[in-house]
Amino acid sequence: MALTVAGLAADRALGLRVLTGEDVLDRPIGWVHPTELTDPQAFLEGGELLLTTGLALDEETSPSYVRRLVDAGVAGLGFGVGLSHESVPRSLVATAAEVGLPVLEVPRETPFIAITRAVSRAVAADEYATTVRIGNAQQELTRTAVGKGGPAGVLRKLAKLVDGWVLLLDRTTVSEAAPASARAYGASLREELERLRAGTRVVALDGQEVVLQTLDTSARRVLAVGASLDTAGRHIVNTAVSVLSLALEQDRAQAAAREALRTGLLELLVGGQAELALRVLAASGAEAPAAPWSVLVFAGPPAARRKLLGALENEPVFAARHGSSVVALGAAGAVTDAALRIGGLHGGVAGPVSTSDFATGLEQAELACRVAEAEGKVLVSAAEHTGRGLLSLIEPTVAQAFARGLLTPLREHDSTGRGDLETSLRCWLEHHGHWDVAAARLGVHRHTLRNRIRKAGELLGRDLDSPGVRAELWVALQA
């Protein structure tokens, strides 16, 4: 901790007496500067303890001298008595008390060099303590990053080291927070994050200083630190930025390798080499769920698929990328719940299937997935899909286009109110061309139904006695 004016005044060996500024003695002293100049502003940086014997000062010049020191931002003034002045000028003390400048009376027997040495020792000790603190923090952050803590552990450690809160953001979205309650700050920082392209930005949030620092990663990530940072704190944040950048890129590379491995293992399963795939999976430290398996296929936007793969990392399932979809084996409930939370995904499920039937199960799940996409459903089972008969083999959009092209003449006729040809044709086909049964179901005379079916045949330009035509019409009516 830096030496303050109060700390220096408390050194009994120096014999200093506080004359003014008792309420601002907590000011840190950056250095000591002895001078007899009446205007030393050009030689000051701010934060110094200025020492003088007042050789060129008197009651008239002292007030303006004090104000110049305040403008220069000095920490305080040490006035040596017993040489040019037996006591500190009254006007100097009065002005210093008015403007809030600490003034210390330095007795004749205390040389200025003694004060300089005392401050020098304190500054050296403070710099050493800062160096030690930075070194220890660097070691702690590095150990956390390479250990089990990972990026999330680094954030928790950093928040503790700077006594504040920390956010890791992917563009403007909070991905990690320490403590967890700090996530609430993410929304307030969104506008600043959108303006930040690279480098560092310091902003104020609820009266607190927040440092925003971009990370050196392939994806645009930002570290936000809410804390009052001293020199050591700023160095610690810079270390965390470097460590996090490396850890996140390492995680990305490892994730890419795991994804490639799982995709390769999935291809082995499809190729009927389940035993080899499971052996390689076990050798990599992972474990597949016990067969027979439920096979799930989910399609959707790339971002949603990535989130699904990430969400299934800690679930009792094996999940891998397969073309433009995600394939998962295992607990269907866990996979479906994850897909629902993420949103924007449509999937199909088949099985349970044995290891030898995996390829068939995958094909069935993919077909069901396409149906779910077409119908806007989250999940369609293969059993439900194949239960639809011939229509399950036709792409829904294709079937609907076929139906529109074939049945448009009937629908245009019915829209004029001149008859219910489409409903009549459906009922007649449903009852296998039995006139009496179909007419009774429709509540009309059989001759009326005959006339409707004849009219339908004319409008369609088809021979309704042909089994092939009847099959086409039945498919169109179901689409």
Q: How big is the Rg?
A: 41 Å
Low-pLDDT windows of residues? none
Mean pLDDT: 85
Main sheet properties: 5 strands, mixed
The CA-CA distance between the termini, in Å, is 79 Å
| Secondary structure category | alpha/beta
The counted number of beta strands is 15
Task: Explain what this protein looks like in three dimensions.
With 479 residues, the chain is α/β, with parallel strands linked by helices. The protein has helices at 5-9, 62-72, 90-99, 112-146, 150-162, 186-195, 231-270, 274-283, 302-311, 332-342, 358-375, 382-386, 396-415, 421-430, 435-442, 446-460, 467-478; strands at 17-20, 31-34, 48-52, 76-80, 103-106, 165-170, 173-178, 200-205, 208-214, 221-226, 293-299, 317-322, 325-330, 346-353, 379-381. The strands form three sheets. A five-stranded mixed beta sheet has the order 1-5-4-3-2. A hairpin with a 6-residue loop joins strand 9 (208-214) and strand 10.
Secondary structure topology:
Elements lengths: L4 H5 L7 E4 L10 E4 L13 E5 L9 H11 L3 E5 L9 H10 L3 E4 L5 H35 L3 H13 L2 E6 L2 E6 L7 H10 L4 E6 L2 E7 L6 E6 L4 H40 L3 H10 L9 E7 L2 H10 L5 E6 L2 E6 L1 H11 L3 E8 L4 H18 L3 E3 H5 L9 H20 L5 H10 L4 H8 L3 H15 L6 H12 L1
Short description:
This protein is of the alpha/beta class. It is built from 17 helices and 15 strands.
Entry keywords:
single chain, 479 residues, alpha/beta, 5-stranded mixed beta sheet, 5-stranded antiparallel beta sheet, 17 helices, 15 strands, 51% helix, 17% strand, elongated
